[in-house]
Amino acid sequence: MTTTYLITGAAGFVGSSIAEELLKNPENHVIGVDDFNPYYSQSWKRSSLARLEVDNFELCDVDLSSADLDPIIHRADYVLHQAGQPGVRSSWGVDFAGYVRDNILATQRLLESARTSPKLRRLVYASSSSIYGDAASFPTTESQLPAPVSPYGVSKLAAEHLMSAYARTFGVPTVSLRYFTVYGPWQRPDMAFTRFCASVIKGETIRVFGSGAQVRDFTFISDVVDANLRSLTADLEPGVFFNICGGSGIELIETIGIIEKAVGRPASILKSGAVAGDVLRTGGDNSRAKQLLGWEPKVSVHEGLVHQVAWLEQRPELLDTDELWN
Asked: Which of 136, 224, 233, 236 is at 20 to 30 A from 43, Cα to Cα?
């Protein structure tokens, strides 16, 4: 019996990775939704989508903020809402209107369609650790009051509140996953690890914002995919949310050392001013996910970065992507 999964943001990093895993089962039908936002390279997205070119994958070019969503949402047994406008730096100023549209309005419209769906079993939302802002304690648990320090974080928290509101009011079976810095193969070209790996591979200078002493809790892509799939079928109350994190922090400058060893070449580093809205530390407690999802991270930062370096070294055509060097 065929099960239909709808993935928003299917051309993106996490969305395409979830789709790839689901498509390994020929009884799964995956509907990929994306509006091909020009935030980063279309060629990067198309290369990512090429791994999904199988008979049980269907791609729909749809803008969630304006299209009639019922015809696609009502076909799905499960919805994995990975779409959204990313980026802390670009969320300030006039560009925030795009974050309101793509992170808040699009999510509300998706939920409106979901609440009248005749067959929806679960809706999983990709939230973010950015909702915590400068957390008061570490490891940060889900009980800590969110206090985002960037417009991006505000937009992600607003969308998560919508998930909870529709769950409480209409019984929409939502789950929110608070991702802590996801990395690995097909990570966006504007993200730090992709840029760091590419720079060391090509012998170019790495630009580090801030001192490099920022501590981050990194989560490898395969672990994030596993968390999403477990969230689809676990016995959960509507509206629940989870930290999805590696469970250990590491300074940004230390990760460059891992990349140097993996490539076999020293890095040239240029330090720039700190980014407005960037926090000094993230670190999550994933006990709730372990208890209710049976999930825990399996890939260490060292292992994951070595894998990401090897992946990028095998794809020299991606090393000329504009966003890597801007």
From this structure: 224
pLDDT value for 277:
87
Helix (H) or strand (E) holding 29: strand 28-34
CATH superfamily to which 3-180+219-244 belongs: NAD(P)-binding Rossmann-like Domain (3.40.50.720)
In the numeric block, the tokens 């985002």 are attached to 148
Is residue 152 annotated as a catalytic residue, yes or no?
Answer: yes
The catalytic position among 125, 132, 152, 183 is 152
Pair of tokens at residue 225: 């995919």
Rg (CA), the chain: 19
Instruction: For the beta carbon of residue 221, count every other beta carbon within 10 angstroms.
Output: 22
Question: Which residues are CB-contacts of 24 (< 8 A; sequence separation ≥ 6)?
Answer: none
**The pTM is what?**
0.97
Q: Assign 237 to helix, strand or coil.
A: coil
* C-alpha to C-alpha distances, 71 to 105, 117, 194, 219, nearest whole angstrom: 18, 10, 36, 34
CATH H superfamily, domain 192-214+248-282+299-324 = UDP-galactose 4-epimerase, domain 1 (3.90.25.10)
CA distance 240 to 142: 10
324: its two tokens: 């890597």
What CA dihedral angle connects 177, 17, 297 and 308, to 10 degrees? -130
Q: How far apart are CA 36 and CA 24, in angstroms?
A: 24
Q: What is the pLDDT of residues 91-133, one digit of tens each?
A: 999 999 999 999 999 999 999 999 999 999 999 999 999 999 9
pLDDT in tens, 133-181: 999 899 999 999 999 999 999 999 999 999 999 999 999 999 999 999 9
Alpha helices in the chain (DSSP H): 13-22, 42-49, 70-73, 96-99, 106-114, 151-170, 192-202, 221-233, 252-263, 287-293, 301-313
